[in-house]
Amino acid sequence: MRAGTEGTGMARRCPAPSRRWARFSAAAAALLAASMMISAGPAPGASGPRIYVSNEFGGSLTVIDAAGGRVAGTIPIGPAGTARPRGMALSPDGSTLYIAVTDPWPNRRESPYKFIWVVDAGTGKVRAKYPCGSDPERLAVTPDGRSLYCSNEDNVTATVFDLGTGKVIAAIPVGIEPEGVGVSPDGRWVYVTAETSNTVTVIDTATRRPIKNLLVGERPRVVVFAPNGVRAYASAETAGTLSVIDPARHEVIQTIELGRDSKPVGVAVAPDSGRVYVVGGRCNCLFVIDASRGAVIATVTQKMGRRPWGVAVAPDGRKIYTANGRSDDVSVVDAASLRVVATIPAGRGAHSVVVGH
Fold first, then answer.
1. Is 304 inside any structural domain?
2. How far apart are CA 209 and CA 252, in angstroms?
């Protein structure tokens, strides 16, 4: 997804790269090296699960102490406005955080900001960075922790990394402007959405080949599997829908209408697979869907942050967290009462949110 266009319908505006690139190249390289050395980990005393928020316009990662409901630290990624951290994924054991980083330049061939940032989730220290295709968007780690799949919006591919070596082992063709990446709980399938072709590409992880393309709503964004593996869900921002997919047949079996003005983006599923949570970037809301009925049962709007783009559920299912890109914060929603119970500051352009163990 292009910088700052979620839910706005605006085309991306980019300065001419030639002169600006010359101005930033030395500074960017210096900051890139510095950030690897001075990354600030969680504050002393932080314990229990942590929440991680990528700040697309702030060039940083916010670390939140979930138990205390407070910011525990900030990890710099690169210069604000130049380094854009977006999609994130945790390793199955929760020890490592992977962040897709890109930049706003139309010509990224010489940019240092097109990689996967690898961060130690316990200390906040940067372990490595993996070179990726142009404009990496979102990513997912296989359940065995061995592989990472990343969408490359400019390359029309999904890159596969061997996490044991950090090397690229495949570049798989997918739809036009790929974005969302979801992996099935058994690790058998990877789904990749594509904004322009309005498709979800099904990848067989055994062969690392695409086997099918599913047509979904206009401008599909995020795709996730339910923890029980019975269903997958793909949001469609322009269509204002949520596609329900049967992974056994790789077929769309239902389309849930959320409203064209809602601009749905982030999707998360409760640990028991009973509820699906979808954030609407235009309506500033959280849709709550009963998975068994395939119906919206509640919409949370009161006290929600502005332009929620990302959503995640706590491991125990009791809290839902939304990353709000225009109010630069995180809304904490109680899953029982479906009320916003706290608002936690994050960085500029809070994009994605994940919850550690």
1. yes
2. 20
Count other Cβ atoms within 10 Å, centred on residue 276. Answer: 25
Centroid of chain to Cα 69: 21
Structure tokens at 274: 């009973």
Q: Which helix (H) or strand (E) holds 25?
A: helix 17-38
**What CATH code is carried by the domain that includes residue 239?**
2.130.10.10
Helix (H) or strand (E) holding 253: strand 251-257
Cα end-to-end distance, the chain, whole Å:
28
User: Residue 251 has which token pair?
Assistant: 């077929």
Q: Please say whether the beta carbons of 250 and 235 come within 8 A.
A: no
What pLDDT is attached to residue 155?
Answer: 85
Give the domain range for residue 327.
Answer: 17-355
Dist. CA 191–CA 193, nearest whole Å: 7
What is the distance of C-alpha 50 from the center of its chain?
Answer: 16
pLDDT in tens, 81-110: 888 999 999 999 999 999 999 887 655 555
Phi, psi for 76 (deg, rounded to 5): -75, 140
CA distance 51 to 243: 27
User: Is this model's pTM higher than 0.85 or not?
Assistant: yes
Count of helices and strands (H, E) across the chain = 1, 28
